[in-house]
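pasting for the record
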Amino acid sequence: MNAIIRYIVNIGPSERLIVLAELLLIGVFVYIVISFLEGTRGERLFRGVIFVLLVGSLILNLVVRQFGMARIAYLYSGFLIAVLIVAVTAFQPELRRALIRIGQADLFSPSSPQQLTRSVEEIIEAVTQMAAEKTGAIIAISQQVPLGEFAETGVRIDAKVTSEMLKTIFYEGTPLHDMAVLIQGDRIVAARVQLPLAEADSTIHGRLGSRHRAAIGISTASDALVIVVSEETGIVSLAMNGQLLRNISEAQLRRHLNTAMVKATPLLERLGHGKQNEQDSIHSDEQTPPTV
């Protein structure tokens, strides 16, 4: 540490600016990589690799070279090459996904409000038709908290949100109809995604089927908005912040989706009545069995 402080003190002002710019570029690069890997297993692996490299570099510069251990320095350079090879192998799925995103035109531009509004209408159209046909479905829409870890449990799709795609996925004859669909922005990220179930320890949750419990579970663990269509009753439910709104109308669903996806305002402010809405919604549907 003293060597680093002496180096910073002895260099000139222009060199300090160069060092600062280099550190800034390194920080930006690491931030971009971690943001890209956020929510996946690759994120933890990347943090481990960075830790090993930083510790190794510090030991090499502050201890090994100070005592003239040239052989250890030589072995460390070979160790870095081995780490690079292992990293390329371990990050193969993430590297492939990064190269695909680089080839997309909208890499540096998020989904526009027009695209998100169109996605909302596509989701509503699909949900309305599936409810009329009593086709069971669960659609999780991620927001600020990434759901990449859950997407890895399913089948990656990366397709534009359309009502035809959603209805095809949840059609009973397709291999992907079971479990959940994950949507991020205007893209369908994955299908057949396994979501955590809410604990069935209360009278309300105990009367719910697996889809509704999964919707409550993921909305409790994240800020995701989850739509559920019951295959027994055709009732549409909406889970947010661990609360379940039962038997919501098309207008209510449109309002919540537009606020969450297009306007991006906090969900709790949009609930208004809080838990009272949950109790009222469930109470209004008491005559119909809530199991899926």
